[in-house]
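Quick one, T. Sequence first:
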Amino acid sequence: MTAEIFLILIVALIIDRLVGDPDWLWSRVTHPVVFFGKAIGLFDRALNRGSAGAGALKMRGLATILLLLMASIVVGVVLNRLFGELGAIGFLLEAFLVAVFLAQKSLAEHVVRVAQALRGEGLEGGRAAVSMIVGRDPKTLDEPGVCRAAIESLAENFSDGVVAPAFWYAIAGLPGLFAYKMLNTADSMIGHKSPKYLHFGWASARLDDLANWPAARLSILLVAAGARLYRGIEAARNAIAVALRDHGLHRSPNSGWPEAAMSGALDIQLAGPRTYSGVRVDEPMINEPGRSVAIPEDIDAAVSVFYGACSAMTLAFAAAALVALLF
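Structure tokens:
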């Protein structure tokens, strides 16, 4: 962690906050994550087949993710050295590249569309909008369920789409950022517990849990900071209290932290029973003492807290950069 790393990250966060993921750009240029996905798919097709047993598939999956991580680290090292030779231009190029792997504006925009659709098109519009960002069956959701799903997605993706990539870039520069994004992409593609990927994706899922461990816990402090900024000191305290109390109610070892923090900040219930591909998943409500009926205005409030949390993170890196420059 150096002052230059922090300064690049601050610029990247500002770029992502202002620009996001413009359609005009990615309709003409291939997003780097697409290349990650193609590499993962290549290994999947080559190694996740045949009559291999569970142990063999786990070893193949482990070899796959280790090779992909090594390749992503090598690419990160090469680009880091290249940008280092380009001076100020390299600084800006690296900042733009880092911004590509962050998701502040794009995430907020997707979630805001859910509230807008509920207001303008009713329940069916809200279901269609939320189906773009969650995996659960939208037809099973009533309006409060649509609102909860949008808020949960915002909180979870704040951790693994904003905090985690920023954290790993701060720790290990481009190699750390690329390795994290490769791992996170692999988890989303092969890390789920379907019959096809239960064993082959096991290593990717476990390593992704490990990589997201720090960000998930840091996210509760950032959500509390965002709540303090937009909703007051009691909301901030409640965010931390609910996160510490209820994070374990979530099936994920990491997602429960930011979701519980957001639940406390807004004083609403989140999680609970959900349906995925026709299969009902029964889980307890996070923050059961909170309000049971979420409304579109809660989505608006969650986005405000989210942006406040992003601002708090940027300021924290600015403080770290100042300390690094002075000492």
